[in-house]
Request: fold
Amino acid sequence: MTTIDAQLRALGLALPGPYPPHDPLDAIVVHGGRARTSGQLPRDHDGRLVHPGVLGGGLSVDDGAEAARWCALNALSVLRAGLGSLDRISRVLTVLGFVASAPGFDQQPAVIDGASKLLHDVFGDTGRHSRSAIGVSALPRGGAVEIEVEVALAD
Reply:
């Protein structure tokens, strides 16, 4: 068992999927000592979307943060599948978060905190990262949140 897998177990977390994107896209791209995921939706262990809909239009910030947490779990799932082990990750670099938002909703950072906190819980200080949280009118398949994650790889 790898160190990160042990940490996931200690936190009571099991990774869903992985749920790769359709052709001709890759779930992750590895280049120049970095790996970057394609956008990850909040899919549960059965592949269903967690809290589909729009923030500020029926979904609460807590719902959105939980969806963002699932997005981060899905990002870790495709990273583990593509890299062979999450222990290859030396640092989480950045999270790009998109939040399906009703007009006037301005709590995107609080929503994406769900993903950021999960990554910090799993990786500790190497899970600290830069981030953007962007409000959009709609996301694929009616997802409330979508994230991309970029990581640095150990030599």
In short: The mean pLDDT is 96.
